[in-house]
Amino acid sequence: AARTEFAARGFDGATLRGIARAAGVDPRLVHHYFENGKEDLFIAAFQFPARPADVIPVVFGPGIDGVGERLVRFFFGVWDTPAGREMMLGLVRSAATSEQAAAMIRQFVTRAILARAADVLPGADAELRVELAVAQMLGVAFLRYVIRVEPLASADLEDLVPFLAPTVQRYLAGG
Question: If you ran DSSP here, which 8-state letter would residue 150 be given?
Fold first, then answer.
């Protein structure tokens, strides 16, 4: 029911009450199991491997030094697990083939991930810098996991981190 409601109404338009109604359950039950609200329900419905609210402090909390490497390791660590890869490929394919899916994913990613990351970075252009860092990693992920360009597709993550982390670091640090 949650996936259907999110798909039909987008992340912003779906409500816990509407999802409960579609599932035929009391809204209090949904609130009980998803006490942090709609974001947690979205994460569960689409089987995200981690809650952005938990990840952002781990990646960005230790400070700006090394944030590029921490983010690269986390992002590609998700892609490198079978469940994470399946979930991420599903999101990429959905966004590429359906404007409705793209809008839903965009709303969630913007609010739950990008805005939170930008809030902890210095500078007025933090939001743009976070988006550029994510775009850099998504481009590599597309070549590595979706169209499987060699030697990138079979490269060990440890061999990629020294190339990717400084670029992501530059975006995030703003210099």
Answer: T
- Domain total in the chain: 2
Mark whether 36 and 80 lie in a shared domain: no
pLDDT tens for residues 43-85?
777 777 777 778 899 999 999 999 999 999 999 999 998 888 8
* One domain for residues 58 and 123: yes
Name the region of 65 (left: φ>0; alpha: ψ -120 to 50; beta: rest).
Answer: beta
What is the DSSP code string of 33-102? HTTT-HHHHHHHHTT-SS-HHHHHHHHHTT-STTHHHHHHHHHHHHHTSHHHHHHHHHHHHHHHH-HHHH
**Over the range 28-63, which residues count as b (16 or more CB within 10 Å of their CB) and which as e?**
eebeeebeeebbbbbbebbebeeebeebbeebbeee
In terms of domains, do 6 and 59 share one?
no
Question: Could you tell me the CATH number of the domain that includes residue 10?
Answer: 1.10.10.60
Domain hosting 106: range is 49-173
Nearest one of 94, 71, 74, 99 to 146, comparing CA atoms: 94
Specify the pTM: 0.79
